[in-house]
Amino acid sequence: MSLARHRYPTFSHGVHPPTFKADTAALPIRQFPFAPVLVIPLSQHIGNPSVPVVREGQEVVRGQLLARADGFVSVAQHASASGVVSRIGLVPSIAGRMVRGIYLKTWPGSSQEVAEGEALRLENASPEDIVTAIQNAGIVGLGGAAFPTHVKLKPPDGKTIDTLMLNGVECEPYLTTDHRVMLEQASDVYLGIRYLLKATGAKRAIVGVESNKLDAANRLRAAAPPDLPVSVEVVEVKYPQGAEKMLITALTGREVPSGALPAELGIVVVNVATAAEIGRLLPHGRGIQERVVTITGPAIRRKGNYRIPIGTPLRFALEQAGVGGEVSRVFLGGPMMGQALSSLDIPITKGTSGFVAFTSRETGVERREYPCIRCGYCVDACPIHLNPAELGLLAKNQDYERMAAELHLMDCFECGSCSYVCPAHIPLVQRFRTAKAAVRKAERAS
Amino acid sequence: MSGKTLEIHTSPHIASGASVDHIMRHVVVALLPVCVFAVYVFGLTALVTLAAATLSCLITEYLLNAVSGKPATIGDWSVAVTGIIYGLTLPPGLPVWMVVIGGVFGVAVGKFLFGGLGYNAFNPALVGRAFLQAAFPVAMTTWYEPLGADRFTSLPSSTLTFPFATPVYDVVSGATPLAAMKFDGETTATMELVAGITSGSTGETSALLILIGGAYLVARKMMNWRIPASIFAAVFAFSGVLYLIDPATYPDPVFMLFAGSLVLGAVFMATDMVASPMTGLGCVIYGVLIGALVVVIRLWGGLPEGVMYAILIANAVSPHIDSLIRPRVYGTGGAK
Q: Half-sphere exposure of A118 toward its Cβ, with a 13 Å CA cutoff?
């Protein structure tokens, strides 16, 4: 029957926000211009900040190493443009405070050729070589978490990895970067998968794609090399399907144990754009110096998917993309988990998947907070099967200890589904962030 | 845009658009056909009862908030829902002053004293009705014949009885189908029950319209279908077993489903979000509990009808169901 409904695998619970992807999904990736000054923070990743290896006043070429990794949980930083290191000091960060970073004045006349490094040939490389090369290329999870990718590839002692999962779900509304990368860089993705399979020792790779990107899934299937043990699986459109745990459950039916990593199940999950970047950079020995960002939202005139130099100030990005109407709120990432900004001096970093601007039409709606009416919407939304309503009442009384001890607060990964559905407009996830921070602080103190 | 301040707001930056007042307005919409049909069946007196019930609840909440210096809450429409449902549970022809007293009691004691919307352990409409049942048992069990010839032209004299005077009834009807069953052993044709042309409370008439209203809310995810479904299933199963054992003593299960206020209670009263459990399994347990209590009260209790007490008892149990039935958290015990 032609009307037969396809049932794609998924996890239980979750929410269905409008995707808002139509504006940019069909727009090919375009190269973004270079800002006059790039701002490159030394900690664009989780872990130790990188250590500068250049001096103020030094001329650098695009792709040149600016800062090396400091220890294992850290990555390198590269010059996103040819120019001069004008200052090494404090730069504004998304967290609101100043962090160490490098100001790079770009050369307007430069051809911006990317410097070649020491190529790592797949055939000759050992798993350790690949892990080191990924660290030296400065690669972090491009889905938004910005966790150093090479750290994930080393399974904890006693664990072996049998499955490499590529996350092409992109469940956040508005974002279309992974979608475009899958459509346009299928061969990069597959080369990246080869490196990743070898580095982890995994026997097979599965690419998970949401069913609103069937064109990308079909493109990947068509481009799959016959010798590669890879399958492309389509999953249901649902938020937060792109969360690591939810993707694993959708594709394997298994659950990552509370407090453990996917490696516990022999699985490593890597974002598809990260894999594409590995496939693009490692054969040339280059470092990551640009990334694809969806610039969109009702306040943006030239919405699109842009390959933007790391360190491009948001103000410059906004000027280039054009603003129509009054911008009242901007945030990096998607609208469900993205962080709102107080300043446009913050740069695009490796973890920036999207840059969305709202006008007062989207933000001006007054949302009155009501008491919890125990409707249970949040209970049906929580992908971890917590009871956000109950947690919310405890959070209001700052009973953080009980939230963690009895109601699994620390399993919350802050997807925001509860706040999204709450008809009483209670800032549930916002309270849980505060509660989690308080619990972590108490744990450190004891 | 330079010089303009940017809003800092933590994620999520979008919302589903669901809102408490929006949900409550839809419940009112779902109740309207039931109200219109009640007025058609019982005439002006039903209109007066519904209006008095709704207004007394609204005004009580407004005044209590004003007097206690709290922000006005009638805008969330929850008290309108309470008022209409309360009105639908009352017998047509009930003296207006009694309607008002029950409405004031339901909102003041059943809702405001508990802390207002969200904190009311019991359905306030049923608290008001329970108060009247205790205070005026005769008036609360005196019924009018449906489809009276002059129902649109005159009000029954009982409606306008002076406060604290004994109401005078002109055309008192026969017993309700449940009372007829209980006290006289008579059953009423099922089709009459479904269509709703029987004597009984203002709103417990047309099962069909009630179910349509419920379906409307279920389709909008504003009602947990598990609650009415498990109530119906439990009533049908328990009374069915009894009927199979002894058909001479016990009524057939279809009669049990459609007689009295079961449909109205299961669809519009047991589903009060505040006073019912939050989890799916919890709702099923809560529904089965109500269904079992209804059968027990109707067949062995002293009253012909038990829906109100069944729901109030289950309301009291609901928070305990929620603390006992905790869904297994992802990645914990029993995970694959």
A: 8
* Contact criterion met (CB < 8 Å) for B327 and A379: yes
Q: How would you class A218 by CB atoms within 10 Å of its CB: exposed for 0-12, middle for 13-18, buried for 19 or more?
A: middle
Ramachandran angles phi, psi of A200, nearest 5°: -95, -20
Give the number of other Cβ atoms within 10 Å of residue A135's Cβ: 22
Q: Are residues A278 and A388 in the same domain?
A: no
pLDDT tens for B264-309 read 999 999 999 999 999 999 999 999 999 999 999 998 887 778 899 9
Cα distance between residue A202 and residue A184, in whole Å: 26
Same domain, A237 and A133: yes
Identify the bridge partners of residue A233 per DSSP, sorted by sequence position. A208
Q: Which residue of chain B comes nearest to A258, CA vs CA?
A: B331
What stretches of chain B adopt beta strand conformation (E)?
none
A280 and A382, same domain (yes or no): no
Which of A284, A310, A330 finishes a domain? A284
Q: Please give the structure tokens belonging to residue A108.
A: 């307007």
Please report whether residue A56 resides in a domain: no
Check if the beta carbon of residue A319 is closer than 8 Å to that of residue A330.
Answer: no
Domain membership of residue A351 (yes or no) is no
Q: Are residues B4 and A389, on separate chains, in Cβ contact within 8 Å?
A: no
Contacts of residue B189, Cβ cutoff 8 Å, sequence gap at least 6: none
Residue A230: its H or E element: strand A230-235
Q: Give residue A402's domain range.
A: 377-445
> Is B14's CB within 8 Å of A173's CB?
yes
Q: Do residues A416 and A280 share a domain? A: no
How many domains is chain A built from? 2
Report CB contact under 8 Å: B14, A331.
no
Which residue among A284, A314, A332 closes a domain? A284
- Examine residue A31 and state whether it is found in any structural domain, yes or no: no
Tokens of A104: 């790079």
| Contact list, A384 vs chain B (CB under 8 Å) | 329-331
What ipTM, to 2 d.p.?
Answer: 0.90
pLDDT, tens digit, 9 for 90 and up, residues B218-271: 999 999 999 999 999 999 999 999 999 998 888 889 888 988 889 999 999 999
Cβ distance B4 to A363 under 8 Å?
no
User: Which CATH number goes with the domain that contains A140?
Assistant: 3.40.50.11540
Q: Which domains does chain B have, with CATH numbers?
A: 20-324 (1.10.3430)
Q: Are residues A272 and A145 in the same domain?
A: yes
- Considering only CB atoms, B118 lies closest to which of A342, A373, A386, namely A373
Torsion angles phi and psi, residue A260, rounded to 5: -105, 170
> For residues B309 and B123, what is the distance between their CA atoms, to the nearest angstrom?
11
> Whose structure tokens read 């860089």?
A185
Give the three-state DSSP class for B321. Answer: helix
